[in-house]
Amino acid sequence: MGDLSYRMIYIGGTPAGLLGLEELFDALYEAGHTPEDVDINELLLRGVRQHNFVPKPAVPDYQAVIGNEYQKYYQKRSVGEAVASRDYGQWEGYPREQIPWFPVVSAELCNGCLKCIEVCPKDVFAEEENGKVAVVEPFLCIVGCCFCKTACDPQAILMPNKEILDQYRHGQRHAT
Ligand code: SF4
Ligand code: SF4
Questions:
Q1: Which atom of ligand 1 is nearest to the CA of 103?
Q2: How many CA within 13 A on the CB side of residue 76?
Q3: Would the CB of 151 count as within 6 Å of ligand 1?
C-alpha cells in the first residue's frame, strides 16, 4: 500500500481516513463507469474495501459520500480539469489531506446568502446551480480557521472541534 493516496473525508459526521480513493476513481473513470451506472455504488464500495475497513452498518453512509465524491471527480475530469492529486502542503508535518479540518455545509440549512464565500480567504466553496453553496476544495481550508462558520447565520456550516487538532500538534497520532 506504500504509494496509495490517503485523504480524510467526513462520513456520517465522523472523519475517516481513506486509502486509495484517487486510484479507485481513476480506474473506474478509465473503465468507462459513470456516476449514473446502476452498479456504481457497489463498484465504489468494493473498491474502497480493498484498502479500508467499512463497517456494515456504515455502508449506506459510505456509499452516499463516496458516490458524491466520484460524481465531483467525474464532472471535473470530463470537462478536462486536472484531477491529479494536487499538493496541499503540510500541517505540523502531516500532509494536509490527513488533517480532518474543513467545513461541511448542510444543504437543508443553507440559504444561499454567500457570506461564507465572501469571508473565506481560500477557494474552499463554490456556488451551486441550486443557489446553495458546496465545499469543493476542503484541503485548501486553513487549519484552525472558523470564519465561515461564524459568518453563517442559519448555522449551516459545521466545523470540527478544535481539540481534534491536538493529537496532530503533539505528535500523538498513530496509524490505525
Ligand atoms: S454563509 Fe451559510 S447560509 Fe450563507 S451561503 Fe454560506 S453556508 Fe449557505
Ligand atoms: S474555515 Fe476559514 S479557510 Fe476554512 S473554509 Fe471557512 S473561512 Fe475558509
A1: 7
A2: 15
A3: yes
Sign of CA dihedral 112, 114, 116, 120: positive
Question: 145-155: per-residue pLDDT in tens?
Answer: 999 999 999 99
Tell me the CA–centroid distance for residue 120 and ligand 1, in Å.
Answer: 11
Q: Which atom of ligand 2 is nearest to the CA of 147?
A: 7
Which of 104, 108, 114, 119 maximizes ligand 1 atoms within 8 Å of its Cβ, making it the mutation to test the pocket? Answer: 114
Residue range 122-172, pLDDT digits in tens: 989 989 888 999 888 888 999 999 999 999 999 999 999 998 898 888 666
Cα dist. 35→18, 40, 46, 51, 128 in Å?
A: 20, 6, 15, 21, 18
* Residue of minimum CA distance from atom 6 in ligand 2: 148
CB 115 within 8 A of CB 134: no
Q: Where are the domains of the chain?
A: 6-78, 100-169
Q: Which residues line ligand 2 (CB under 6 A)?
A: 103, 119-122, 124, 141-142, 145-148
Provide CATH code, domain 100-169: 3.30.70.20
Residue type, 19: L
* 136-to-52, 141, 170 alpha-carbon distances in Å: 24, 10, 29
